[in-house]
Request: fold
Amino acid sequence: MTISESLKVDHEFLPSLEDAYDDEIIISIILDCFYDLNYIKQSIKSVIEQDYNNVELCLVDNGASDDISAFLRKIHASSQNTSLIIYKENQFSWSDREKNVAICWNAALMHCKGEIISHLGHDDILSKNYAGKMVKLFADNSNCVTAGPLPVSINALGELNKSSENGGGDFLASNNRPRYIEGKKVALDYVKGSPERMFGAPGEILAIRKSILLEYSGYEQGIDMLQILKYSIHGDIGFDPEATVFWRHHALQSNRRASAQGHIDVKDFRRVIQRSNLINIWKRNFSLSEVKLLELFFKNKLERMPLTKAQDMVSRKNFYGLFLVFFHTAREYPEMLLKTIFHSVDFSFKIIIKKLKAMRVKD
Reply:
């Protein structure tokens, strides 16, 4: 979906009732809201309390329930530099789970005042210094087109997740890059399987120059990948680990709910490849051998999707979920069905053998 097409989807835009900007760079932060009012309150609070003045909060009421809609209107009416976009119908579909990215985020993009555009998940939180740190990265380097803070995983209660199984881990080690680095280098490391560990994040995390977003079709489905492979390659990527985005992992996340239903996401990933025009963009910016690396990355990622989902179901002893993985694989990637079944059986035997060895050690 193009930006112009997204703007045709019925919505109402309410500009901020009071603007209070100075001469510094404006950073706009989009916050798309639909459910989880308690999380939304925390996310909004973290944006409003930034220690940088020129922060525009662009709220999106994505067909939310009455209590959330009322709260968003209250914030819009009482907060400076805050606009509100209202959709009567929720822009989401289980068959296209990032439909809201193409529609809601692009509408916000076109209404935003900022030179720098960022997005915050409705259940995530920004450190107080986030906006100032991100703006400085762009201000100090005119070739900086994307910039990111350090991601930190938190649970439903806002506590730090230390276990990688729960979305935690050492994100500083997986973001092994200097304050500035050429975006192409990060993208190449990414498609090579991150041997230099230059970029790691649980989702979309980068602030992006508005001009780059407008030049390259705006926000699109697959933003987690495209932030590196499509936008960052046109200049430098900035990084300041002193700024933080607290990324919340919890059971109600749409990707977790989809995984529980056995979705393998192959169809969605193929759609992202086609819509994003990535192959052709890389052909204009990289060597032929580097384009081949991207194509191999796509091929390997597609093959891993059903295998990884099946393995996860076996680990969780969710055999109905495993059946659903086989079902979706048969529909979306039939040539991988037998391999997925054999992989599941092999992985099951490995678990059994591991348990038997552990029992022998105890004996």
